Amino acid sequence: MKQTVAIANDHAGLALKHVLLAEIAACGFTALDLGTNSADSVDYPDFGDAVAQAVTDGRAQLGIAICGSGIGISIAANRHAGIRAALCSSGLAAELSRQHNDANVLCLGARLIGEAEAKECVKRFLTTAFEGGRHAVRVKKLG
C-alpha cells in the first residue's frame, strides 16, 4: 500500500501545489489534497492546521504545507503536538530535516522558491528516512 502525503496551501501556494502533485506521485506516494483549490484569498493557518491534523490523526504519514513565504503555515502546523514542520528552501535542508529532525511536515514558500528547487525539496523529503540514533534523543526533547 502506498503511503499518503497530505498537501495543503493558501492562495499563494496554489500553482506550486499543482506542480508538486506530480512529484509526490513520482516518489510513489498518494496525495491527500486538502485545498485550497482557488486563487481567492484564504487564511494560511486553516491549511497548516489541516495538514497537521491529517498527519496526527493518521490519514497521512507526512505532510506538505505551502504559503507565500512558508513561514506562517509552518508556525500554524507546529502548534500541533507531534508535528515537526520544517520550512525548507533547498533539497539539502529538506533531506536533513528528515534525517536529523524526523520532520513530518515540509513547508515551502511559493513566493521564495523556484519550481525546480521545490520539486527537489519534495523528492528528498519523501525519500529520506530518519536516522534515529543520537538524533532520536534530541527529537524526543522536542516533545
Detailed description of the structure:
The chain is of the alpha/beta class and 143 residues long. The chain has six helices and five strands; from the N terminus they run βαβαβαβαβαα. β4, α4 and β5 (105-109) form a beta-alpha-beta unit. The chain starts with a strand and ends with a helix. The model has no long low-confidence stretch (mean pLDDT 97).
Portion in beta strands: 15-25%
Poorly predicted runs of 5 or more residues = none
User: What is the general shape?
Assistant: globular
DSSP strand count: 5
Intertermini distance: 30 Å
Q: Number of DSSP helices?
A: 6
Gyration radius from CA atoms, angstroms: 14 Å
The largest sheet, given as strand count, sense and whether it forms a barrel, is:
5 strands, parallel
Helix amount, in percent? 40-55%
Structural class: alpha/beta
Question: What key attributes describe this structure?
Answer:
five-stranded parallel beta sheet, single chain, alpha/beta, 143 residues
Write a brief caption for the model:
The chain contains 6 helices and 5 strands, in the order E-H-E-H-E-H-E-H-E-H-H. It is an alpha/beta fold and 143 residues long. The longest helix is centred in the N-terminal third of the chain and has 13 residues.
How do the helices and strands line up, and which of them pair or pack?
Blueprint: E1 4-9, H1 14-26, E2 30-33, H2 44-56, E3 62-67, H3 71-78, E4 85-87, H4 91-101, E5 105-109, H5 115-127, H6 134-140
Helix pairs in contact: 1-5, 2-3, 4-5
